[in-house]
Amino acid sequence: MSTHVLRAWESRYGLLTPSRSSGGYRLYGVDDERRVREVLSLRDQGVSAMEAARQVLAAERAGAQATGEADGDDPGLDTGSRVAANGDGSLRVDPPMLVTQLLDAITALDEDRAHAVLDTAFLDRSVESAVVDVLVPFFVKVGEQWELGRIGIAQEHFASSLVRRRLGALSMTWGLGTGPVAVLACPPGEFHDIILLSFGVLLGRAGWRVRYLGPDTPIASLTAAADLTSPDAVVLASRRPSGFRAHAKELRRLGDRHPVWVAGRGTTPRILEEIRAYHLGPDLVADVQQLTEFARQRRRAAGERSEAVEQEHGERSDAQRNGSVNGRQAEPVNGRVNGHAAHATSEARSDSEPHA
């Protein structure tokens, strides 16, 4: 555990209460160590450091109150005021600075420092802002640094793994509710899906039920998933036009059954024309709004069509019932309906013909 993270948790969450040595160094006690271990355990389960610290301090406060040992010096009793006292603006860093700090941590493969930066991003702003203003620009920078040879595959994979775990904790409610359904995937050969995953997080927070298939998804599997879930939107993301063009025919067929949206740098006017798909731009928040409005209008139109079909069916049923009643009044012959009566008449004629 780095001193940077310990100081961050002390100042942001009021988690630690170190004393000072004669030389001014922080001295952490047994209780500090216990809290840190509990936070680390929760974080390994996918809980953010901020939420883990809140849970640890709340449990400690509840235990102290239950045993009658709570007093004004308990570190968990005044967490809010401590955070406020230390959160006077000096701890709130602008997104470009957070992106730089996160890139530095990733370059050094320093997981603790990277988590501390992410904690700051998600603590100081909304999830939407943390994703759009920090994570997306960060991954743009990662791509640029990799192309320039300043970071390697190890750093790129490390960054993806770190952020994927953080975003995964925000995707736990994707299957809940009754909102519109979206199927998200990258086409075959596309393995960079962090931005698509980020978009899924924003969709989930807007009430969507997300079915996330992830990178390198065969079009046949994507089609099967769409047919199974009847989504309000199928979203495909690719960095290269070839990711779409190689499967244009299959994607056109998929678009005949479900609304297909494409995103990423691989989206060009020609691609949109070839696969006859809708387009999502680089603004993830605006894309969520656009997709939500589209789904709302689509569902409204489907409801209106359903009502029209039910009304037409009802009118047809009424007409058939009326026709059946009128027919039964005219059809009986010796207690039999037309078909039987006609058969009887035919038999009668057959019997009478020799006598004619």
UniProtKB/TrEMBL annotation:
Keywords from the named record: DNA-binding, Repressor, Transcription, Transcription regulation
The B12-binding domain, residue ranges: 179-302
Pfam family, one: B12-binding_2
GO molecular function, one term: DNA-binding transcription factor activity
Ranges of biased composition (kind: Basic and acidic residues): 301-319, 346-356
SUPFAM superfamilies (UniProt xref): Cobalamin (vitamin B12)-binding domain, Putative DNA-binding domain
Domain HTH merR-type: 1-58
SMART domains assigned to the protein according to its UniProt record, in alphabetical order: HTH_MERR
Name of the protein described by the UniProt record: Cobalamin B12-binding domain-containing protein
Organism: Phycicoccus flavus
Biological classification of the source: Bacteria, Bacillati, Actinomycetota, Actinomycetes, Micrococcales
